Structure formats: structure tokens, C-alpha cells
Amino acid sequence: MNNKLLEMIKEYREKGDFIGEISEQYIKKAQMRLEVKFPLEYKEFVKELGSGGICGVDVLGVEGEEYASVVESTERNRKSGLPKNYLVIEEVDEFVYCLNTVDKYNVVRWDDVSKLEIERYSTFDDYLEDSFQEAIDNCD
Fold first, then answer.
1. 117: three-class secondary structure by DSSP
2. Are 125 and 59 in contact (CB under 8 A)?
3. Where is the Knr4/Smi1-like domain (predicted)?
4. Which of 31, 68, 78, 88 has the fewest CB atoms within 10 Å of its CB?
């Protein structure tokens, strides 16, 4: 994660906002179940923080050996037509934000009605920084 993200987390983090550090073994298990490799920025986030966010943002991830919210949500959305190259990283009412695990590693918005993939961010860190900043602005 970049320095700006680390500063945001340090300043606004409250107890219970993140699961905490996750072992490489649990990350590999989630990747195997979804048959993808996590992009580096996302993998670093999961390894350091597990899942969660600040000021109400809830980024899906890996919570332990037996449960991974990213796996549960991605599998559920795949049943509705989500392409296999995407990980669901946040559920937002009628749509989800997804991280591309191939090529560009961009973040798209997707819903199970239109099935459109609308690019929103060029990287996971861009998505995280924007989501956190918007939440901070609305939190203050």
C-alpha cells in the first residue's frame, strides 16, 4: 500500500475496522478456491489487514482459515454471470466493485442485471484511496 493509504488508515482506524494480518497459507487457499492469483496490491492489503476498511468502507478479503468474504461473494456473483477473472472486493447495494485478476488489474463496477463491466479505477490502490477519501469526507 502506498504512503497516503497508510496515513489514512493510521489516522482513521478504529478498533475492529480490520481483521488483521493473514497468513500466506490462508491467502493461497482462497486463491485456489477461486482459481485466480490475487494481484500484488490486493494481496498486500489482505496479508496486512485481512479485510475491512475505515469510516464504513468494507473491503472484502480473507478472514481466516475457514472463511474468506472475497470467496463467498465472488462465488455467489459468478453464479449470476460474473466473469471468472474478477474478484468481488466490495458490495454496494445493487452492484459490486470487482478487481481484475488478469492483465490490467483494474477495478470495475458490475451488476447482475446489465452484466456490464464499467471500469472505475486503474489499480486497487486507486480504488482504495478514493473509497477511503470519500468515506472520510462523509465521516467528518
1. strand
2. no
3. 21-130
4. 78
- Short-list 102, 103, 101, 99, CA closest to 126: 99
With beta carbons less than 8 A apart as the criterion, state whether 132 and 55 touch: yes
pLDDT tens digits, residue range 116-127? 999 999 999 999
CATH annotation of 3-128+131-135: 3.40.1580.10
pLDDT tens-place string over residues 20-76:
999 999 999 999 999 999 999 999 999 999 999 999 999 999 999 999 999 999 999
E-assigned strand segments in 10-140: 86-92, 95-100, 107-110, 117-121
For 10-77, the DSSP string reads HHH--TTSB-----HHHHHHHHHHHT----HHHHHHHHHH-SB-STT--B----SSS--HHHHHHHHH
